[in-house]
Amino acid sequence: MAYRVLGRAGPAQPRRARRLLFAFTLSLSCTYLCYSLLCCCDDLGQSRLLGAPRCLRGPGAGGQKLLQESRPCDPSGPTPGEPGAPSAPAAGAPSPRLAGANHSGSPKLGTKRLPQALIVGVKKGGTRAVLEFIRVHPDVRALGTEPHFFDRNYGRGLDWYRSLMPRTLESQITLEKTPSYFVTQEAPRRIFNMSRDTKLIVVVRNPVTRAISDYTQTLSKKPDIPTFEGLSFRNRTLGLVDVSWNAIRIGMYALHLESWLRYFPLAQIHFVSGERLITDPAGEMGRVQDFLGIKRLITDKHFYFNKTKGFPCLKKTESSLLPRCLGKSKGRTHVQIDPEVIDQLREFYRPYNIKFYETVGQDFRWE
């Protein structure tokens, strides 16, 4: 009897098993389909279900821009708030794309500012040396070329002038050098209109030696110019000096200084001795640093004396593999001048020198 019952039930079991297997397979397929609809994305980087979070397969699906706004389609990756997930930026924090970006005006690069200090003169006094020496200081950024803004290019405007400047941080000083400013009548007023707080540096030198150096430079470019003696005097016999010649006129320091003192107090003008710049560069640059209000970092260890040029040069630094001297036009051998001509010019400059010493409170010992 039992055998017959088992015999009748046997054929029904495989059918039930097949139905269960079919139901299980159908359920699994539906589950997989739902999972795919919820988590996978189309080529535009958007979910096929409205309201589902956006996700990306990679950089090509929707572009790099969306990568920072979307989560990858990786169910194994942590979601915000879970351990191991990147924390959300605090309120007011900069975007990750902008943090540390090197864009215009970035604090890391600084900004272009109008100069707070100017080397305004004088030509052939040692202005290039002062510029190159002070540029060693980390708190100073200087324009390498002479922009001639306050004498030749004033019509271009302050925005043009600012665009030439190097980028500086808040803690740094912007500096530029144009030695012809000192003898330009309009320059003091124009600089004052830019900023009455501008610090002014004037590098002066024995006016006779300066004039000879000026002539030597011009002669190297124009070999056919008249002699130094011929240009210096309207009548040498009578001792009449030609003050219209620029090489002579520049050395009348007291005359030019009057124009500057109409706009700037003497405390805002620092005078560097061109002679002491050669014999004691560290001492002169120490006083320049004091005037600019920066720490004395440029010291004796930065200089060595170049016997060939007869001028101090900068020693090699961590950022420079070689020592740095001024160009070939600096330290050029002067033309030989008749000693009597030199004596006549010394007498001519004597009253201007004395007045200059009295005005600035320094004896430069040029007599």
From TrEMBL:
According to the UniProt entry, which residue ranges have a biased composition of type Low complexity? 84-101
Membrane topology according to the record:
Single-pass type II membrane protein
State the residue spans of region: Disordered: 61-110
Cite the InterPro entries for this sequence: NST/OST, P-loop_NTPase, Sulfotransferase_dom
- Please provide the record's keywords in A-Z order: Disulfide bond, Glycoprotein, Golgi apparatus, Membrane, Signal-anchor, Transferase, Transmembrane, Transmembrane helix
**Pfam families hit by this protein:** Sulfotransfer_1 (PF00685)
Binding-site residues, 3'-phosphoadenylyl sulfate: K124, G125, G126, T127, R128, R205, S213, K330, G331, R332, T333, H334
Q: What class does this enzyme belong to in the EC scheme? A: transferase
The Sulfotransferase domain is annotated at 115-350
A GO term for molecular function: [heparan sulfate]-glucosamine 3-sulfotransferase activity
The EC number(s) attached to this protein equal 2.8.2.-
GO-annotated cellular components: Golgi membrane
Q: What residue intervals traverse the membrane?
A: 20-38
Family affiliation:
Belongs to the sulfotransferase 1 family.
Identify this protein by name.
Sulfotransferase
Look up and give the organism this protein is from.
Answer: Moschus moschiferus (Siberian musk deer)
